[in-house]
């Protein structure tokens, strides 16, 4: 279970790192790239720890991957038989 938790943690961590890293690459300046990668790493750590402590990583990803739009799970439809 700890291996899955680590993988989920890294998945949350790398999202802001990649977004800010790509932004830094488009800026074209190495100094801006380093600043944005550092900011992304700090933001990623804070975000991953917040999700791990408050929600839980497996619950967080289960909510993301769940299909709430599936008609067979919809209890509000008027198609009663």
Name its key features.
single chain, 81 residues, elongated, 3 helices
Describe the model.
Helix 1 runs antiparallel to helix 2 (30-54). The mean pLDDT is 87. This protein has 81 residues and is mostly helical. The chain has one domain. It is built from three helices and no strands.
Percentage of residues in strands: under 5%
The total count of helices amounts to 3
Overall, the morphology is: elongated
Low-confidence stretches: none
What is the total tally of β strands? 0
Mean pLDDT: 87
Whole-number radius of gyration? Answer: 18 Å
> What proportion of the residues is helical, as a percent range?
over 70%
The first-to-last residue Cα distance is 43 Å
How is the secondary structure organized here?
Layout lengths: L1 H26 L2 H25 L2 H9 L16
Helix pairs in contact: 1-2
Question: What would a concise description of this structure say?
Answer:
By secondary structure, the chain is mostly helical.
């Amino acid at each position: 279970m700890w291996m899955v938790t680590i993988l989920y943690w890294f998945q949350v961590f790398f999202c802001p790192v990649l977004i800010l890293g790509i932004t830094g690459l488009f800026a074209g300046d190495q100094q801006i790239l380093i600043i944005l990668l550092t900011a992304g790493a700090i933001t990623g750590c804070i975000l991953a720890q917040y999700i791990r402590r408050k929600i839980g990583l497996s619950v967080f990803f289960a909510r993301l991957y769940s299909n709430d739009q599936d008609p067979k799970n919809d209890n509000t439809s008027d198609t009663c038989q």
